[in-house]
């Protein structure tokens, strides 16, 4: 089951939000992510958070109280983390996070850290970038010279094969802390296939 968590912070344009949400069977808004959802014409199935960053309390008007999950401001989990847990509780085994760009660095790192968990989000789409959790194989489309970067996820070493990248990934063993910044597409597409472990693919948001 596919789910989307729309969180606070800078989000991609409305058309992009709707594109990444169109196949979702469950949409969860985390705190001020509700404002993004409303602006994009989306109606969340659940709204989660302490609502300390919600632009206006009136955004909650018209939402059934049974669909609002309120938390205290002083808590052990971020609103994004709580929303991700809510999506899992709804039965979502594939979750995309939308928003969360800009703002405080600790919040950015907090969302990024979610990708080291198991299960992890399948993707994170901000106002500038797309981050994807590569567990098996992925096709990357774009233009010659487009920049893509890779980082190992989790504690296990990662090995992969690639086609269509300026610097192939074949033969590399990625360990936690290794980085692969600024690789490039040599054509209109590239393919990365995981042999073991997981990789985080980072690329600029198209359009």
Description:
The relative contact order is 0.16. The two termini are 28 Å apart. The model has no long low-confidence stretch (mean pLDDT 94). The chain has 207 residues and is of the alpha/beta class. The chain has 4 helices and 13 strands. It has helices at 14-21, 33-39, 79-89, 105-113, and strands spanning 2-6, 26-30, 46-49, 68-70, 94-98, 123-125, 129-134, 137-141, 147-153, 159-163, 180-184, 189-196, 198-204. The longest helix has 11 residues, at 79-89. The strands form 2 sheets. It has a 10-stranded mixed sheet, sandwiched between helices. The chain has a 3-stranded antiparallel sheet with strand order 8-12-10, with no helix packed on it.
What value does the average pLDDT take?
Answer: 94
Quote the beta fraction.
25-35%
- Number of DSSP strand runs: 13
Poorly predicted regions? none
| Gross geometry | elongated
Largest sheet: 10 strands, mixed
How far apart, in Å, are the first and last alpha carbons?
Answer: 28 Å
Radius of gyration: 18 Å
Strand order in the sheet with the most strands: 4-3-2-1-5-6-7-13-9-11
Helix percentage:
10-25%
Q: How would you describe the oligomerization state of the chains in this entry? A: single chain
Structural class: alpha/beta
Written as H for each helix and E for each strand, in order along the chain, the element string is EHEHEEHEHEEEEEEEE
Number of helical segments with 4 or more residues: 4
């Amino acid at each position: 089951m596919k789910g989307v968590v729309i969180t606070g912070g800078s989000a991609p344009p409305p058309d992009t939000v709707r594109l990444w949400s169109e196949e979702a069977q469950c949409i969860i808004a985390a705190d001020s992510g509700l404002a993004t959802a409303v602006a994009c014409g989306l109606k969340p199935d659940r709204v989660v958070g302490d609502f300390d960053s919600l632009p206006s309390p009136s955004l909650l008007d018209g939402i059934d109280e049974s669909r609002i999950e309120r938390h205290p401001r002083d808590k052990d989990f971020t609103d994004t983390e709580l929303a991700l847990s809510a999506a899992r509780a709804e039965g979502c085994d594939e979750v995309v996070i939308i928003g969360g760009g800009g703002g405080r660095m600790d919040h950015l790192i907090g969302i990024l850290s979610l990708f080291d968990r198991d299960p992890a989000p399948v993707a994170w789409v901000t106002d500038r970038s797309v981050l994807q959790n590569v567990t098996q194989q992925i096709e990357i489309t774009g233009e010659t010279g487009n920049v893509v970067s890779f980082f190992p996820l989790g504690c296990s070493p990662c090995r992969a094969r690639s086609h269509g990248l300026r610097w192939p990934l074949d033969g590399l063993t990625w360990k936690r802390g290794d980085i692969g910044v600024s690789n490039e597409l040599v054509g209109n597409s590239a393919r990365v296939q995981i042999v073991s472990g997981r990789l985080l693919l980072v690329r600029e948001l198209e359009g």
